Amino acid sequence: MKNLLWLQGGACGGNTLSVLNASDPDLFTFLFTHNVKLLWHPSLSLDNNITQILNDIISDRLHLDILIFEGTVIMGPNGTGMYDIFAGKPMIEWLRKIATKADYIIAVGSCASFGGIPASEPNPTESTGLQFHKKDCGGFLGKNFKSRKGFPVINLSGCPVHPEWLLTTLLLIIEDKLSQEDLDEFNRPRLFYSTTTQFGCPRQPYFTYKISTKELGHREGCLYFELGCRGPYTRSSCNNILWNNQSSKTRVGTPCMGCTEFDFPSFNFFKTEKNRSGIPKRLPLGVSRGSYVTFSAVAKASAPQFLLRPLVRKGKGDWIE
Amino acid sequence: MNEKIISPLNRVEGDLDLKVIIENNRVIRAYPMSRLFRGIEIILRNKYPMDSLVITPRICGICGASHLYATAQALDMAYNAYVPPNGVRLRNVMALAEMAQNDVRHTYLMFLIDTVNKKYENLPFYKDMVLRWAPYIGSSYKEAVKWSKKYTEIYAIFGGQWPHGSAMVPGGVTTDPYYNDIMKAKGILTHITVEFLEKTVLGGPLYQFLEINSLNGLEQWCTDYPNGDLCKIWNYGKDMGWLELGRGSNYLMSFGHVPLAEKYVPGNSKLMFDKGIINLENWEKIDLDQNNILEFVSSSYYTYDEGEKIGLHPFDGETKPLPPNASSSKYTFTKAFRYKLGNSLIAPEVGAISMLTVGGNSLMVDLVRRFKSNVLLREIARIIRLALIHKIIMDELNDYDINKPAYKKPDEVNTTRGYGMLEAPRGSLGHWIVIKEGKIYNYQIVTPTQINMGPEDPFGNLSHLSLSLLGTEVNDVNNPIEVAHVVRSHDACMVCNVHFFDSGLEKMVIRL
């Protein structure tokens, strides 16, 4: 039996709702099958005995195997944490004590991982992530923090987290199969954060031949060159492990917003920032400016004709570059 | 006298603290307190208007599509955008799919599980309630877990992902579906209709349920289809006194919802569910004018430059936050929403019950005429709405013209303003945006939970939730389940409370 506690800080609840979308297995089947006891969850628990549960954990009467935290850690105003009062105290006071009692801690979503939207400038709530503040290791718990099993906070960034990312990570922990080598430099499981959003994107051929779509609302063309898609440099598995069993942002013509990255939200969405020579400021992951320019020229000249027109519908292809 | 602070009150979206004062087993005062502040909208200031399409859905994990739709409408108005009928249809499909998901999850995961409370242990139908609605193990609970996520699949086919997609944009939607997408969405919807809505929720055929237009019809339905949860909620709820519980405001308000695809005009669309306010005392229908919306801060952790007595319209909103507990008369991060009606300020109720009653649904109107507003009718309203949503989504998908576009690029305007108003799952939601020199100068949001659960205004008028709790009889002060029913029947969304501060330039998001 593993005890799991889920708390929310400066959260929208999106990770909770996302996990309720888990299908095979669904959340409750997962918990039952793997003998996990959900001690308490703000939206799901019948009873309202959280204060006692927290006190029991702090006084070692109750063992906490896994703590899941959703939302930012709110330090404001002026470091008091008073912008987030939970069960009669600032959440940071509970969190400081509970964190030392957990075998593993998982930060679900970009808020708990990196601070997310609330921590972006001017950060009015003094929000931070559990163990990162944007790209810097530290956050609320500090750079050297380890949970009882010797792990740093395991970050599952994304706005929200995909249910499959979370349940798989939980399973690895429950079955004692997770090692620190499985985590990347942001303490995220490499399994889900080593590929870019482009992996599996149906628009990849358009990217390859540098064929841009100039406006929203079209199935064809790449969204990176004009419309601000962050897919080529955002590490996520969104186009491999589809959302809600169906789709992804880029599949429905919405540019990737880079929500799994530490700098989310980087703003100026729906628009590709370029330098004076018209090259996107942010290049695909691992590609140098020189290679990009050389490769683009060749790619553009080699573009197959059928990619320059709508694939299925007749009509002018003037939305394509 | 017994003062009870329920902190946190769980099973609402986000955390809510509630202070109730109980005397002789009756609630004599009630203070809903928002105790969390997220500050999202301060961050929107000086950003590009299109950025709000990414940020505002993330105000709320359960109704992000409603925020997105409001943002898209506000930008439509600001840019004077033309939205092709296909674009309106897909927006409607997405918003309603999310609403259906919400209504199912609210009903089963957050509200009905309170029926296993020990207060009801000796009722003859207690065992049936436990078998159906107990958390994790109840037969209907399990069905709700299984099927509620299917609505999000419909959303994702057009919106990419749920929660937090950004596929609605000024001018329409980003998506460009083919026949297979439309077919698949309809297939999923039909599957939910047959396997969940008709079997578990309604207990009988949808088309027949939609013909019901009166209390008699509902009672007949319960005779004909006694095994659906609808019948059980209605009959058990009546027996448990829920028709008399949690009355509240005399006014039901709706911002109106679901624009007709061919008649979409930002701010002035023909709607499937009309906007307005209904006075429950005399059934007068009052036209809704967004100019009459005001927010007050005398009981909230803010100050206004012009003093505590004034109310500000969202376009001119101004909120300067104070640290919590700085003043004994202030107790919440939620501002008080008031609608100016002649010389008085009213604090209306919003939610499914208001949307359907103001919108003219004849079954709902008949029920509310007879029983006013209460815990049971709020729950029944969500089920009626769920049935209606199934029909509307199917109609919109059937009417989608695959050979026409769903997006037309608008011309961005550098200095302009606009608003978007609609019905989110929990009630009326409005976004107001002011754009100056191509950047967001002011972005304000009024949310349903703020409208229902704000504090009193400077003139001592209480908000709807406080009114609905007043006089509530609490059987056992150590088990105030009646109070929980009243609060949860509003499907409170604590993550949605939003405000501005500093000369209306900045705003913040508050979780109760």
TrEMBL record, chain A:
Q: Which family does it belong to?
A: Belongs to the [NiFe]/[NiFeSe] hydrogenase small subunit family.
The positions annotated for binding [4Fe-4S] cluster 1 are 12, 111, 159
Q: Which GO terms describe its molecular function?
A: 3 iron, 4 sulfur cluster binding; 4 iron, 4 sulfur cluster binding; electron transfer activity; ferredoxin hydrogenase activity; metal ion binding
- UniProt xrefs under SUPFAM superfamilies: HydA/Nqo6-like (SSF56770)
Q: Which first-to-last residue range defines the signal peptide?
A: none
Q: Which GO terms describe its biological process?
A: anaerobic respiration
UniProt cofactor(s): [4Fe-4S] cluster
List ligand-binding residues for [4Fe-4S] cluster 2.
201, 222, 229
| Matches recorded under Gene3D superfamilies | Cytochrome-c3 hydrogenase, C-terminal domain, NADH:ubiquinone oxidoreductase-like, 20kDa subunit
GO CC annotations on file: [Ni-Fe] hydrogenase complex; ferredoxin hydrogenase complex; membrane
Query: What range(s) does the NADH:ubiquinone oxidoreductase-like 20kDa subunit domain occupy?
Result: 12-171
What is its subcellular localisation?
Answer: Cell envelope
The organism is: Acidianus infernus
What's the domain of life for this entry? Archaea
Which residues hold [3Fe-4S] cluster? 238, 256, 259
The name under which this protein is listed is: Hydrogenase
Q: Which UniProt keywords apply?
A: 3Fe-4S, 4Fe-4S, Iron, Iron-sulfur, Metal-binding, Oxidoreductase, Signal
Q: Where is the Cytochrome-c3 hydrogenase C-terminal domain?
A: 193-268
TrEMBL record, chain B:
**A Pfam family assignment:** NiFeSe_Hases
Q: Which GO terms describe its molecular function?
A: ferredoxin hydrogenase activity; nickel cation binding
Q: Which UniProt keywords apply?
A: Iron, Magnesium, Metal-binding, Nickel, Oxidoreductase
Tagged with keyword Oxidoreductase: yes
Residues recorded as binding Mg(2+), renumbered to this chain, are: 41, 445, 499
Q: Which domain of life is it from?
A: Archaea
Q: Which residues bind Fe cation per the record?
A: 63, 496
Presence of the UniProt keyword Lyase in the record: no
Q: Which PANTHER family match?
A: HYDROGENASE EXPRESSION_FORMATION PROTEIN HUPK, HYDROGENASE-2 LARGE CHAIN
Q: What is this protein called?
A: Cytochrome B
Organism encoding this protein: Acidianus infernus
